[in-house]
Amino acid sequence: MATETDTGRQSSGQVNTTTPGETLSVYDGIVMVVGIVIGIGIFATAPLVAQFAGNEFNFLMVWLLGGLLTLIGALCYAEIATAYPSAGGEYHFLSRAYGRPLALLFAWARGTVIQTGAIALVAFVYGDYANAVVPLGASGPAIHAAIAVAVFTGINMLGTLQGKITQHIFTALDVGAIVLLIVAGLVVSLSSGGPTASTPAAMDGSGYGMIGAAMVLVLLTFGGWNEAAYLSAELKDARRNMVKVLTISIVFITAIYFLAGWAYLAALGFEGLKSANAAAADVSRVAFGDTGAKILAVMVCGAAISTLNATIFTGARVFYALGRDLPNLSFFGVWSERGENPANAFLLQGGIALALVGLGALTRDGVKAMVEYTSPVFWFFMLLVAISLFVFRRRDPDSGHAGGFRVPLYPVTPAIFVAICAWMLYSSLAFFGWASLVGVAVLAAGLPLLLLGRRVADVRP
Q: Could you report the per-residue pLDDT of 24-41, keeping only the tens digit for each?
């Protein structure tokens, strides 16, 4: 069933008018969201979070707080996505709330910075671990990263079914890696009693600032849940099931992150965690020796692939929505009837991601460069989406919401989400390096699209 007539129009000369069908179950949606979020973040950010947290108690609590704040944002997204389901996700929301020009600027940002940068980032993480298993020399991480982008773009081009099956396999490896980490922590805890937790320390203003810095990293580790918006047109009975997908996913992820944090403390102690370079491998080594560390490293590769595949799967949808709106880009707005996916959009996304992998290979740390490159632009547009909920409630309080989900405690809940996004935008500019300014500059290069957008009639039902 076509659920996307609101977001765009097929030009009369377009070859294919097939639109997305409801092919994804609640389980498929949960697998996608969990696969995107539980990737490499928990294996990389925990030592940094510990450095800012101050003590064990605070370290564990920030993961629970991060889950709560993420759930608040997810509930806001659920209301918008169930009212206006579309494969264009945030592109569609921004177009409805602010007009087509801003939506076109977002499409530019997502295509050149946000999503393709995230694909390149995850590919580099995979490349670092894969190069340790199969060394390819100094350029090995970039080579592995490029191969991964090409292979999984190809798999997703084959069809939605192939993309779903691949995601199920690698999400299992993803969760399995964290389960192994938790089991390792339990083994060490049972054998040695584990470290003694400290009591919460009183904090001055500086201490609260440090906790704020820890939360920046925690929320980055929870990042990716918003990709569920791009599944709304393909999710069966999205009005009822979108909130289920987001709520179940985030509660599960929060529990996993909390237990992983406990495992780090149990095996390494707080001071050991703060100084760890490869904390997850260190935990597995303490519990199971070098063999266990190698096994976990391979599973982390699987976790990275899980995130990579899911990010590729959802990312191409915005190119599809853009192609449906702009006749000159209609080639990318074709929905493949054979593969039940935007096959042409995958080609464009993959090409840009490979270009970013090439650029990242020129820096000393491709992962760090991609994090800095994407963060400010990502949080700027998420802030606009958060504000759009107020716009929709004021402009259209009844239409589109009948039978859909309503965020509880309105307007407090979305106001908290707006504050979170504003803080993250500020932090990504204040605490990150030069690459963040490059991302902003690339966004600015797309400003002419605002003029182009004024020539395209807005579609507002």
A: 788 888 887 887 787 667
